[in-house]
Design brief:
The chain is an alpha+beta fold and about 120 residues long. The chain has 2 domains: about 1-70, no CATH class; about 75-123. It is about 50% helix and about 20% strand. It is built from 2 helices and 3 strands. A 3-stranded antiparallel sheet has the order 1-2-3, covered by helices on one side. Helix 1 (about 5-35) runs antiparallel to helix 2. It is elongated. It starts with a helix and ends with a strand. The structure holds zinc ion. Zinc ion binds next to loops. Zinc ion binds near residues 79, 81, 112 and 115.
């Protein structure tokens, strides 16, 4: 197998493992809650499942975004002001708001030395 394909396959597996870990953690919490509340009624179980679903969504979003955040664009994006290639300046914390909720994540950001502006690439 060519090395590039091998590399891509490994990254996919890393993400799959991270997603499985998140799934197992939420499922484990749910099972533990049920052990402690064997007499829970339908509406209590429903509430618990809804909370677990929300946390799972947030966790999944965070896991996938964290993975994307470590990928660097090469070459850097073009500056929308002057068109020059922007340079990678490192990772910065930011919060991403989506229908899932707010997800804290690290994102690579880029700087144009001519215009002295920095951006997070879209997406
Ligand atoms: Zn510029």
């Amino acid at each position: 197998m060519p090395q590039e394909q091998e590399h891509e396959k490994m990254e996919k597996n890393e993400l799959a493992v991270a997603v499985e870990e998140a799934t197992a953690a939420i499922a484990g919490e749910m099972a533990e809650w049920y052990m402690q509340h064997p007499q829970a009624n339908l509406s209590e179980i429903e509430q618990q499942v809804l909370r677990a679903r929300k946390r799972f969504g947030e966790q999944l979003m965070h896991t996938v975004l964290a993975k994307r955040g470590t990928e660097r664009e090469v070459p850097g994006p073009s500056c929308s002001e002057c068109g020059a290639e922007m340079h990678y300046k490192g990772q910065k914390k930011r919060r991403v708001v989506s229908s899932i909720g707010e997800t804290p994540m690290e994102r690579g950001y880029y700087y144009c030395s001519k215009c002295k502006r920095s951006i997070f690439p879209p997406g």
